[in-house]
Amino acid sequence: MLLNKSNRENKKVSLKGAVQINHSSFFVYKDKSGNTFLKTGEDEKLHKSAVQNMINSNPHIARLLKRFRIKPNIDTKTLNELTCGHMNETCNIAIGVYSLLSGDIKSHVDKESLKEASMLHDLGKVLIPSKILNKPAKLNVKERKIMNIHSTLGYELLKTQDLSEETLSLIRYHHQNLKHSGYPALPQENTSSDIGVQIISIADKYSALRESRVYRRRLSRTEALLILYREVREGKIMPAVYNALFRYAELYDLD
Questions:
Q1: Which of 125, 153, 167, 245 is the most exposed place for a label (fewest CB within 10 A)?
Q2: Confidence grade of residue 67 (pLDDT, cut at 50, 70, 90)
Q3: Domain-by-domain residue ranges, the chain?
């Protein structure tokens, strides 16, 4: 449940971003005295306090939850699982894909924003009901709409923190594609981060496909790449980004 007032005052912290050290992800926090420190996803009390502070700082989050009739629980267990698993692996893949792109394409992407956004891209899932996140079957229309706001929730949670506009944009639009048929709607004039969005999007999807989920088995490297290649043929994924992922998988995804 949400923290009470006294707990919030005792644990006033803000999130400055995320870093990866030896392929492990850490949240970068700043306390009320201005001290900066690193934490993994295991400190549930601290993370709950930090997310609560984000909610308190942005009234739009409460309105968004009310609109979708989501009970405002903070699921720090999910946050820990994401940090140690999916978000960390998405970062590894995204940076791997970036490193294998041509210099001309790389010039359109800020590497540090890409790295930070890939480590934080699913933060909004801490507010998605666990019965939806862990449903062992296909989501219905209502549940899918709720699931799809996780990227917006992540953006809204983090916009009051000390993150760059580029990082926030990548988090907000990491489920977009070249045809702009993803979610949430991408402003037509926003093209500067399209390649960064492409990289995080394909890294996110590849990581998810290579994980076992409650509703399906873990897919093989070939199966995952074939699924993503269909999106290339549909014009949703840039061929150069897919080719970089393919090379990354051949070099580093060996099991």
A1: 125
A2: very high
A3: 5-252
What residues does 13 pair with on adjacent strands? Answer: 31
Assigned CATH for 5-252: 1.10.3210.10
* Alpha-carbon distances of 230 from 1, 112, 171, 212, 227, rounded to whole Å: 41, 29, 24, 21, 5
Q: What's the pTM value of the predicted model, to 2 decimals?
A: 0.89
CB 30 within 8 A of CB 13: yes
Would you say residue 1 has pLDDT above 70?
no
DSSP string for 72-131: ----HHHHHHHHHTHHHHHHHHHHHHHHTS-HHHHTTS-HHHHHHHHHHTTGGGGGS-HH
**Percent of the chain residues past pLDDT 90, beyond the cut:** 59
Q: Which DSSP letter does residue 68 get?
A: T
